[in-house]
Specification:
Layout (H helix, E strand, L loop, with lengths): L1 H20 L1 E3 L14 E14 H5 L9 H4 L9 E20 L4 E12 L20 E9 L12 E6 L26 E6 L7 E10 L4 E12 L3
Antiparallel strand pairs: 1-9, 2-3, 3-8, 4-7, 4-9, 5-6, 5-8
Length: about 230
């Protein structure tokens, strides 16, 4: 009886360990530090990245005025904190995270949301505002070479675009199964899963890039993790 119980307990333990190692945690991939630790955020023009909390969303009047409108629309997808983007004037904004892709990596998992008040999506070859004389209003989630400049739109720097609205002309390959939408809003947090087989053992950079010459765009990314193949 004791031996049977021991075997059962060992089996449960192995199953639990396998479940744990099925996903590789990315430090602060869920922003639960309440900061941008391990991430890099850059803005040009009138935009800025913020971390907002569940408390801010529960009581939007207590939040900084710059993003009360955003907080009235969507709470964090998990935990207490999420990043969001706001603008007071045309801007370009990027949020970057360097990733070391494990040899057992299966897929990149993340949650994403967006909303635009522009009349249309429009990408004109740059992530910086005012560089083109036509309206530039777009965002995308991309995998870059580690050596790429933060705002790069060079085809040689972009390994893959894993999400973008489907109007415009982004350089570099588009993920075969990348979801896309012309809608002005995601209607909440959307879960994305992107295969990582091509990047196993490599160092890459995950980027959310945005430009908003035509009107404000709210966007956020959260709960970023890497799913592993079982041993």
């Amino acid at each position: 009886m004791r031996r049977t119980f021991a075997i059962f307990a060992a089996a449960v333990l192995v199953t639990a360990v396998s479940a744990v190692v099925a996903a590789a945690a990315i430090p602060n991939g869920n922003f639960e530090s309440g900061t941008f630790a391990s991430w890099v955020h850059k803005s040009v023009g009138g935009g800025a990245w913020h971390i907002y909390s569940q408390d801010d969303w529960d009581d939007p009047d207590s939040a900084p005025p710059a993003y009360r409108d955003v907080l009235s629309e969507i709470p964090p997808p998990q935990g207490d904190f999420s990043p969001t983007l706001t603008q007071g004037a045309p801007s370009g904004n990027v949020l970057l995270r360097d990733l070391e892709i494990p040899n057992r990596a299966k897929a990149l998992k993340l949650k994403l949301y967006w909303e635009t008040r522009a009349e249309r999506w429009n990408y004109k070859g740059t992530w910086k505002p005012g560089e083109e004389d036509t309206g530039n209003s777009y965002f995308a989630v991309q995998v870059l070479k580690r050596s790429a400049e933060a705002f790069s739109s060079d085809r040689g720097d972009i390994l893959e675009t894993i999400f973008a609205p489907d109007e415009g002309s982004l350089p570099g390959p588009m993920a075969r199964r990348a979801p896309s939408s012309t809608g002005p809003s995601s209607g909440g947090w959307v879960s994305l899963s992107q295969p990582l087989a091509a990047y196993r053992g490599k160092a890459v950079t995950l980027r959310l890039a945005e430009v908003d010459d035509l009107g404000p765009i709210a966007a956020g990314i959260d709960d970023v993790k890497i799913k592993l193949r079982r041993p």
